[in-house]
Predict the 3D structure of the following.
Amino acid sequence: MLGSVIFIQKIRTVHGITHYGQTVTDCFIQPIIEKLVNDSEYYSRRTAIVAFNKSNRYLKRGIAITPVKFGISFNTTFLNQAGALVHVYHDGSVHLNHGGTEMGQGLNTKVAQIVAHEFQIDFEKVRISATTTGKVPNTSATAASSGTDLNGMAAMRAAREIKTRIVDFLAEVYQTKPNRVRFADNMVHIGAEVISFSSAVRQAYMGRISLSATGYYATPKLKWDASTMRGRPFYYFAYGAAASEVVVDLLTGENRVVRVDLLHDAGKSINPAFTLVRSRGFLQGVWWLTTEELVWDEVAALQRMRLLLIKFQLALIGRSIGVLAFSQTKIAKIQSIGLRQVGEPPLMLAISVWLALSDALSGIDGAEYPALDAPATPERILMTARRLGARFVSSDQQTCGLSTGSWCVRF
């Protein structure tokens, strides 16, 4: 949470060693927080919220900023490896298979983009088939926000091996040096000569050059001792921050997300569209902290799961994400790719909504971030409001809450 300039000054000391012994050398929290505070107009909105809460007895607003530092890699070290198989056909088309599992997150598209970029050909020329251990054995789980890092690097290495063979062959045929052979825009430049990629591939095929290769990648510099809980389990950290504003109805506990500003360090994003979509994992975190309540009876039978409210809540938050920006850092932690993962980290940024709800309740008695259970359901918000001293209006008064429609709550 962010309440003063003092907090911003304190986070400048983040660089150091984690409690499990890993040295943090690439911390971008400071510039991310500073940019988010500025872009979200945090201080002016904070002033407006204080004024709003003073003039409104039953509707209270709150705002909070939370950062995230999320380690990227499996802490089960042996899982940090991947393989890929790439075939280039003499017509210039490319077939790709890797060890990751596509589950709607866009992994296949991103890995295919990496291969297309390596050959400098159109994305449409790359075909990818479903994962099978008959082609890529000993696959690791697709999890821990590492799917593109691992499989993308393996595919890139396979493509690069084939590319190197083609370059060496063309340099020999055209009597030039390998460093004068360049791939660009579906063409291959060989000194002063320019031929199509498909022509270059066909010449290599006719020259009996292998156009198939396997690629393998193991994340470097990882070491983790589970018995002592010490070591370097993560190759790098992903950083981000969120500023969330909410409004709470003290009469019912109902609440609405007014605005969310997200800022996440995506590095050199392979596909900004997928990066944008994956960042919406923030919404999943909102459901987790405000809606997904499980209730069991005395014999441990599940009695209630508040998932049915998600569709209703979506109408209250779905259009509230006003700004979603990305910091393009120059640190390329993944060799030659330069991306930084945006899979799981945004989930944690939903804590800003939970703290904003707590901040809104502080408008009752002035307490700073009063204790609030998670998930912060309307019932729990109402209970907290009563604990903090919220009082209802007299019987001859009425007030309207957050809910839309023709009804009002009367007391």
User: Anything to note?
Assistant: The chain is about 35% helix and 25% strand.
